[in-house]
Amino acid sequence: MSNSNGWGLTARLISKHFGALGDRVSEAIANFDPETATEADRDRLADSLRSTAQKLAAARASFEKERTDVVKLRELIATDEKATGTLAERLAAGKISEATITLFCDELEANKARMPQEEQEEADAKQYMDELQTIVDALAKQLSEFDAAAKKAMQQLATAKAQQDLQQVRAERQSELAGLSGMRGNSSALNALTRRAQTVSNEAAGMRIVNDIGQRPIDQAAEIEAIRRSVNTPALGAESALERLQRLSGKSAAPAPQLGNS
């Protein structure tokens, strides 16, 4: 069994060791690599909680042992105290030796003398267990708060990155628009394309002129042929039925009879 100074010193060392966790938690979130730093610091905090919880489990087992020792010693003392009357009667009746009574009394007095020490060790074990329980509760709360703070910080980081990406897209678009605006008057490629379009247009116009010149004699010949046909073919609407029959039969029309004085 350990003494009270050992328990108290260990408890103070644990309290001092875990006292700086808050600073490390706040620094980790603002680190250069927040994702990795946050995960690493959370792992350290979780490890501290797990390690302290294991110490708490051991402290609980130790306290239960100390408490059981006190309970058993108290019950033994109470039983021995009840037996003193019976032993006195047996000693008076010569049924038990004085040496046995002496040994019994020595053990009873030793157990009574041990009781304050056993009770103190029980109290120290309980104090140490309670201190560890307080630390475990604080670490559990700190881990929960850390998770909430880390989640909020990661959300803020994601929002900031989204805004950064948006501004980057806007800057790229502005740069593209500025480039297109400058290319309208300064782009050698656009100028060459414009000149090519004009050249092709000029070539098409020249081909049209040549085609028009070549078409002119054809049109003139067709016009002359049309004039000839109109001269050689009498107008159908101007001939009589008799003249049409004579024309179709190949005979000339007889001169019309003259009416007058004979």
**Secondary-structure class:** mainly alpha
Mean pLDDT: 80
**Could you tell me the number of beta strands?**
0
**Helical segment count:** 6
Quick one: overall form?
rod-shaped
What's the gyration radius in Å?
62 Å
Uncertain parts? none
Short structural summary:
The protein is mainly α. The chain is 86% helix and 0% strand.
Characterization of the model:
With 262 residues, this protein is an all-alpha fold. It has a domain at 38-147: Helix Hairpins. It contains 6 helices and no strands. The chain has helices at residues 4-18, 21-29, 34-92, 98-186, 188-232, 241-249. The radius of gyration is 62 Å and the shape is rod-shaped. Keywords: Coiled coil. This is Phage shock protein A (PspA) family protein.
Summarize this structure as a short list of keywords or feature phrases.
single chain, 262 residues, mainly alpha, Helix Hairpins, 6 helices
Which helices and strands appear, and what pairs or packs with what?
Layout: H1 4-18, H2 21-29, H3 34-92, H4 98-186, H5 188-232, H6 241-249
Helix pairs in contact: 1-4, 2-3, 3-4
Protein name: Phage shock protein A (PspA) family protein
Keywords: Coiled coil
